[in-house]
């Protein structure tokens, strides 16, 4: 039986090439993801371990801010320790960097820090700063702001004064969430203290004296650092940072492996279909084996052995290709994830190789088990048949199959209905995903019926188009189960792509509507978000200057005070320059926002239980004050607790002298460039103010969503490619099965070109049906996902993207038919008529 199996593999190797390629592609994705994540993890770890490993002891303030800093006299004590050779303190506080246009970089002030003689950071390009007029930038900050080594950059000190510095170098800070978000500018120690205005230290880095171990140095530093600092050896700090970096790499790897799993599932469908057809076509061969003494177990083992050989060889190829994919992916994508690709060596672990081999082999074997079992039921008398036509692959479908599909689809509908009825969006989204899986199983059960109905629907059109298209429709309809199995692999990719396209388009539509409702303005101006202290706000003179510009119609200033209580935070708000009803983007559940005036307030129902007409007592800076409730709002998107009249707000919170933000609306017909110049001229003397164009915000958000959509489509594209291979393989095997039939058609007058066109139509028909089913399924569950993710969403069907995908399905069908149609057309009529 072993020799028979090997001989069968040699004989049918052409039929198994596409199957092996499908397995190899799936394994390539899995292995490539593992190589990429392992290399990324090693790169992150080497970056942080290398920087932390320079120090023997590191003392870090346990709390951020002035109250949690390490006092400078502690640094003096550390330097006096006999266990310490050298030590330096690290200052970390806000130091806003200005871009070349003079505006502050980022929505939060850039982090200013010190790098001295003893530091765990080094320059990736250029040199570290030493003089009072030198500074170094984080590599990501320099890229975002447009600075290079040798440029002159301006930084604001704690009093808002501008200082010019020469950029001496760029520092790669590795994985740092804070620096990734805020950016960083580094100074010499004395300059850092001057620029940030802070007296304390965020960190003390120390190098042990000769003959003193790192642990001994850390213990000595801990003895003088007190309770306000955590002291670690450099190695332990590096291990902690490496662990954090590894977590980020793992999260990325999990996302990629999810798409790899989809490709493997599609490959399994292709494998199953291929072996099912092969077993059906080889009934006489199996029957002859039974006639010469082979038992059922040996027949089963023979088919499984073929699958094992295909799986192992294809998996080996996939692992090798995956290593190349992982290395290439890391080299191309390292910049986007702040990893240093220079000098990086690909990390290929034995675990990665074993996982790749195991996934490919196990997938192939599991997909071949059912066809192998079916092969055992071939009776010896089948050897007497005169044709190898695959009667073993059922051409019809029974009531049980339809009933199971109906039950599964009903269960999926119930799951979605349950998801729509619960408030927890995370649980609801999981239910929708589960319902999608169940619905797909139902579609698989129904797929032969779907194929038969779809082909019957287009059959009149196919007959009108000519003989070739009519024959193609007949071929698909006479064996709907095989056609369904071939097209269902494409349905997987079509469902996922369409589902995400619907979610993406609906998110854009919903966001556009929310922006129009919540930001009915042209520009929004606000201060940088200060993390160390309360934001300074927007100087009232900016609003006055804006109101004097002829291009500007209205300027609404929002002022806010946050008061903390044992139970919650209260956000007290007022608006200057507009009535409350016009300024607030919410509808009153009771009362009228237009009634808010001196002595009256609007409240959110989550803040107070008082109703319209009741008296509300508020704790203000001027003591407890009473107000009448004029309106109650219950909308979840509202970002305030109480709205007061401007005069009442000024009396209640006299410490608030600046605006939280400004909403600027242009006059009708205002020129966009002149409006832009008017807005920026008003903020010219206030470099830290953030000017946000609503149109730009919408465009940036759409670009972000489109980029994410293209990335996901690209990763799902491999599953679609595998599905196309499956359709091509099914078509090629069908051509072999129908060799005598094709010869008979040729003998009756069908030309080579017509035979080719017939197979092209057959492939296109399968691809379009598979894609159409996926589009319908994806649209339904995309809508359900949007419905549970958002309150009052705007559902959007991306007709253009769906049309493009259907066009791609037609192109895929054309591509899948190239080799099978060429093979069929080249076959000799006489040789084909004589074939068995």
Automatic annotation (TrEMBL):
<feature type="transmembrane region" description="Helical">
    <location>
        <begin position="251"/>
        <end position="278"/>
    </location>
</feature>
<feature type="transmembrane region" description="Helical">
    <location>
        <begin position="428"/>
        <end position="447"/>
    </location>
</feature>
<feature type="domain" description="MacB-like periplasmic core">
    <location>
        <begin position="17"/>
        <end position="223"/>
    </location>
</feature>
<keyword id="KW-1003">Cell membrane</keyword>
<dbReference type="GO" id="GO:0022857">
    <property type="term" value="F:transmembrane transporter activity"/>
</dbReference>
<protein>
    <submittedName>
        <fullName>Putative ABC transport system permease protein</fullName>
    </submittedName>
</protein>
<feature type="transmembrane region" description="Helical">
    <location>
        <begin position="708"/>
        <end position="736"/>
    </location>
</feature>
<comment type="similarity">
    <text>Belongs to the ABC-4 integral membrane protein family.</text>
</comment>
<feature type="transmembrane region" description="Helical">
    <location>
        <begin position="484"/>
        <end position="503"/>
    </location>
</feature>
<dbReference type="InterPro" id="IPR025857">
    <property type="entry name" value="MacB_PCD"/>
</dbReference>
<feature type="transmembrane region" description="Helical">
    <location>
        <begin position="757"/>
        <end position="783"/>
    </location>
</feature>
<feature type="domain" description="ABC3 transporter permease C-terminal">
    <location>
        <begin position="714"/>
        <end position="828"/>
    </location>
</feature>
<dbReference type="InterPro" id="IPR003838">
    <property type="entry name" value="ABC3_permease_C"/>
</dbReference>
<keyword id="KW-0472">Membrane</keyword>
<dbReference type="Pfam" id="PF02687">
    <property type="entry name" value="FtsX"/>
</dbReference>
<dbReference type="GO" id="GO:0005886">
    <property type="term" value="C:plasma membrane"/>
</dbReference>
<keyword id="KW-0812">Transmembrane</keyword>
<keyword id="KW-1133">Transmembrane helix</keyword>
<feature type="transmembrane region" description="Helical">
    <location>
        <begin position="795"/>
        <end position="819"/>
    </location>
</feature>
<feature type="transmembrane region" description="Helical">
    <location>
        <begin position="399"/>
        <end position="421"/>
    </location>
</feature>
<dbReference type="InterPro" id="IPR050250">
    <property type="entry name" value="Macrolide_Exporter_MacB"/>
</dbReference>
<feature type="domain" description="MacB-like periplasmic core">
    <location>
        <begin position="484"/>
        <end position="679"/>
    </location>
</feature>
<feature type="transmembrane region" description="Helical">
    <location>
        <begin position="299"/>
        <end position="325"/>
    </location>
</feature>
<dbReference type="Pfam" id="PF12704">
    <property type="entry name" value="MacB_PCD"/>
</dbReference>
<feature type="domain" description="ABC3 transporter permease C-terminal">
    <location>
        <begin position="258"/>
        <end position="380"/>
    </location>
</feature>
């Amino acid at each position: 039986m072993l020799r028979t199996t090997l001989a069968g593999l040699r004989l049918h190797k052409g039929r198994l090439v596409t199957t092996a390629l499908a397995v190899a592609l799936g394994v390539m994705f899995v292995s490539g993801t593992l190589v990429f994540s392992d290399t990324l993890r090693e790169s992150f770890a080497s970056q942080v371990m290398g920087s932390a490993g320079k120090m023997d002891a590191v003392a870090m303030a346990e709390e951020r801010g002035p109250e949690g800093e390490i006092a400078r006299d502690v640094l003096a004590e550390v330097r006096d320790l006999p266990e310490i050779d050298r030590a330096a303190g690290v200052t970390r506080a806000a130091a806003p960097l200005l871009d070349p246009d003079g505006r502050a970089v980022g929505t939060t002030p850039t982090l200013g820090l010190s790098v001295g003689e003893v530091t765990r950071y080094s320059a990736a390009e250029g040199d570290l700063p030493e003089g009072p007029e030198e500074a170094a930038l984080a590599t990501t900050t320099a890229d975002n702001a447009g600075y290079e080594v040798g440029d002159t950059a301006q930084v604001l000190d704690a009093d808002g004064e501008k200082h010019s510095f020469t950029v001496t170098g760029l520092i790669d800070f590795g994985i740092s969430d804070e620096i990734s978000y805020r950016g960083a500018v580094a100074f010499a120690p004395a300059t850092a203290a001057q620029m940030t205005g802070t007296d304390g230290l965020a960190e003390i880095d120390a190098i042990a004296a000769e003959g003193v171990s790192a642990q001994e140095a850390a213990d000595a530093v801990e003895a003088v650092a007190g309770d306000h600092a955590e002291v670690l050896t450099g190695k332990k700090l590096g291990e902690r940072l490496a662990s954090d970096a590894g977590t980020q790499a793992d999260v990325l790897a999990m996302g990629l492996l999810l798409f790899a799993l989809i490709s493997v599932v599609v490959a399994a469908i292709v494998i199953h279909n291929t072996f099912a057809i092969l077993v059906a076509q080889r009934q006489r061969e199996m029957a002859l084996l039974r006639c010469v003494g082979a038992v059922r177990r040996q027949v089963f083992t023979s088919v499984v052995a073929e699958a094992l050989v295909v799986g192992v060889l294809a998996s080996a190829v996939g692992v090798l290709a995956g290593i190349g994919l992982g290395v290439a992916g890391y080299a191309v994508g390292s910049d986007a994830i702040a990893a240093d690709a220079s000098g990086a060596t690909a990390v290929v672990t034995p675990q990665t190789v074993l996982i790749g081999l195991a996934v490919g082999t196990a997938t192939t074997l599991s997909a071949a088990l059912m066809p192998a079992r079916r092969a055992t039921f071939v009776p010896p008398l089948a050897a007497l048949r005169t044709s190898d036509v695959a009667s073993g692959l059922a051409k019809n479908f029974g009531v049980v199959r339809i009933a199971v599909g109906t039950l599964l689809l009903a269960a999926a509908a119930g799951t979605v209905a349950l998801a729509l009825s619960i408030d927890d969006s995370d649980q609801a989204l999981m239910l929708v995903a589960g319902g999608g899986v169940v619905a797909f199983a139902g579609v698989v059960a129904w797929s032969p019926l779907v194929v038969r109905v779809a082909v019957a629907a287009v059959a009149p059109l196919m007959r009108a188009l000519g003989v070739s298209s009519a024959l193609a429709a007949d071929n698909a309809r006479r064996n709907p189960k095989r056609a369904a199995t071939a097209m269902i692999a494409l349905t997987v990719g079509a469902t996922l792509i369409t589902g995400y396209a619907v979610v993406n388009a609906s998110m854009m539509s919903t966001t556009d509507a929310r922006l129009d409702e919540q930001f009915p303005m042209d520009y929004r101006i606000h201060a940088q978000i200060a993390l160390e202290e309360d934001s300074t706000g927007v100087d009232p003179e900016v609003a006055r200057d804006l109101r004097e510009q002829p291009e500007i119609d209205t300027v609404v200033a929002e002022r806010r005070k946050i008061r903390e209580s044992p139970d919650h935070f209260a956000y007290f708000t007022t608006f200057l320059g507009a009535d409350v009803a016009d300024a607030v983007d919410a509808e009153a559940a009771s009362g009228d926002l237009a009634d808010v005036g001196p002595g009256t307030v609007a409240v959110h129902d989550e803040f107070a239980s008082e109703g319209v007409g009741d008296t509300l007592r508020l704790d203000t800076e001027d003591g407890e004050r009473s107000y009448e409730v004029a309106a109650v709002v219950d909308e979840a998107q509202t970002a305030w607790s109480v709205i007061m009249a401007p005069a009442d707000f000024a009396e209640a919170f006299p410490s608030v002298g600046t605006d939280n933000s400004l909403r600027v609306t242009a006059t009708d017909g205002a020129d966009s460039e002149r409006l832009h110049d008017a807005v920026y001229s008003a903020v010219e003397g206030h470099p830290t103010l953030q000017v946000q164009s609503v149109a730009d915000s919408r465009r940036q958000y759409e670009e972000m969503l489109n980029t994410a959509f293209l990335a996901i489509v690209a990763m799902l594209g491999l599953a679609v490619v595998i599905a196309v291979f499956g359709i091509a393989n099914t078509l090629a095997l069908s051509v072999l099965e129908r060799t005598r039939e094709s010869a008979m058609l040729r003998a009756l007058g069908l030309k080579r070109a017509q035979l080719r066109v017939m197979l092209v139509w057959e492939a296109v028909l399968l691809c379009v049906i598979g894609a159409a089913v996926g589009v319908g399924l994806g649209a339904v569950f995309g809508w359900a996902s949007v419905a549970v993710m958002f309150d009052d969403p705007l559902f959007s069907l991306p007709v253009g993207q769906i049309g493009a995908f259907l066009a791609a399905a037609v192109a895929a069908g054309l591509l899948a038919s190239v080799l099978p149609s060429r093979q069929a057309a080249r076959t000799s009529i006489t040789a084909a008529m004589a074939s068995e």
